[in-house]
Amino acid sequence: MRSFILAAVLLLFPLDAFAQDVQRWQTKNNYFQTMAGEKVTPRGVSLCSLEWHKPLEQIKSVTTPPDNWNINILRLPVQVREWDRVGADSYIKDYLDPAVKLCREKKLQCIIDWHEVGRWDDAENIKKLDDFWAQVAPRYAADRNIIYEIFNEPTEPKSKSAENWAAWKSFIQKRVDMVRMKAPNTLLLIGSPHWSQMPSFAAEDPVTGKNIAYVMHLYPNYKPGSWDKAFGNAAEKVPVILTEWGWSAAEKHKGNYANPVYGTEEDFGKPLKEYLDARPHIGWTAWSYDEKCGPAMLGPDKDMGAFVKSWLEEANGP
Fold first, then answer.
1. CB–CB of 48/57 below 8 Å?
2. Is 154 exposed, middle or buried (0-12, 13-18, 19+ CB in 10 A)?
3. From 3, 205, 237, 300, which residue has the greatest number of CB atoms within 10 Å?
4. Are residues 41 and 281 in contact, defined by beta-carbon separation less than 8 angstroms?
5. Does a structural domain hold residue 20?
6. Residue 196's domain is classified under what CATH number?
7. What range defines the domain where residue 87 resides?
8. What's the pLDDT tens digit per position in 83-124?
9. Model confidence pLDDT, tens digit, residues 206-248
10. Is 30 exposed, middle or buried (0-12, 13-18, 19+ CB in 10 A)?
11. What DSSP string runs through the chain?
12. Is residue 222, in this structure, part of any structural domain at all?
């Protein structure tokens, strides 16, 4: 009889939903907070992929002493080509579910990121985007520690104009509304055209809905003098999170052109720390906690990794 009652309870209240004692993160005004109303600054790292380079071991490593990086958020990129190669059902079973389970065990806020880098007006990209969220949005809706980043880097049309933002807003609003039907309380992260580098327009023309934050991807091709215009001013009005940032001192050029991520701790890392420490309402996840995906904090860009790890220990505590 006791087993029957437990089974009935689990049908009504999935274990994933009530077994957690972690609080869901929300947005209010221009900042992040817990359900209890306590302000919080998302600070953590992004993996490179949920398929490459032993991601489950990376999750354990970044959250477990002695390598613990003191993160309070972790980004989980779903590489589109791997989703296509493996197939939705197998990908969810073999990659997403195990990663979410680990995040749940660690009581860690984790971002599921549809890691598309491509045109946002392309019919094939749109179909894949909609198919992904139709399956994933309801699956983890009850998890209070799961956040959805809807489209990693919309590229073209890339014009940094109010007209292009309005077109993008109309496009992404439909996806927000679709996800909201399946996941009414999940925090949503919204990118923008030009590789998620124009959240500034959201300050005056935001997407409709609750618990929404806007994404900025920041690398050394954006100099400190441009940060206010790019995202800092907007962050005074709407919630903003840098789900990718980093630099690489390892490679100055890619082929015949300047590497946009080439930089140093002195000209990028330290100025960014000073900028964000003065603005704790802006969240961030550094790219990437990986040995190969550049800037690779566990590989050739280990100096950046040491910088980020030290910053996280200082900001988030031991």
1. no
2. buried
3. 300
4. yes
5. no
6. 3.20.20.80
7. 27-316
8. 999 999 999 999 999 999 999 999 999 999 999 999 999 999
9. 999 999 999 999 999 999 999 999 999 999 999 999 999 999 9
10. middle
11. -HHHHHHHHHHHS-HHHHS--PPPEEEETTEEEETTS-EE--EEEE-S-SSSS-HHHHHHHHHSTTS----SEEEEEEEHHHHHHH-HHHHIIIIIHHHHHHHHHHT-EEEEEEE-EE-SS-HHHHHHHHHHHHHHHHHTTT-TTEEEE--SEE-SS---SHHHHHHHHHHHHHHHHHHHHH-TT--EEE--HHHH--GGGGGTSPPSSSSEEEEEEE-TTS-GGGHIIIIITGGGTS-EEEEEE--BSS-SEETTEE-TTB--IIIIIHHHHHHHHT-TTSEEEEE--SSSSSS-TTTTTHHHHHHHHHHHHHHH--
12. yes
Residue 293 CA, chain-centre distance (Å), reads: 16
**Dist. CA 126–CA 21, nearest whole Å:** 36
Task: Decide: residue 4, CB within 10 A, 0-12 exposed, 13-18 middle, 19+ buried.
Answer: exposed
Distance in angstroms between the alpha carbons of the first and the last residue of the chain: 45
The whole-angstrom separation of Cα 302 and Cα 217 is 20
- The residue whose two tokens read 């300050």 is 203
The one-letter amino acid at 63: T
The answer to the question of residue 45 being in a domain is yes
- Contacts by 228-231, CB closer than 8 A, 24 or more apart: 229/200, 230/197, 230/198, 230/199, 230/200, 231/199, 231/200, 231/282
Instruction: Tell me, yes or no, whether 171 lies in a domain.
Output: yes
> How many folded domains does the chain comprise?
1
C-alpha–C-alpha distance, residues 25 and 109, integer Å = 8
Residue 289 dihedral angles phi and psi, to the nearest 5°? -80, 85
- pTM for the full predicted model: 0.93
Q: Say if CB 313 and CB 304 are below 8 A apart.
A: no
Comparing CA positions, the residue from 257, 278, 305, 290 lying closest to residue 55 is 290
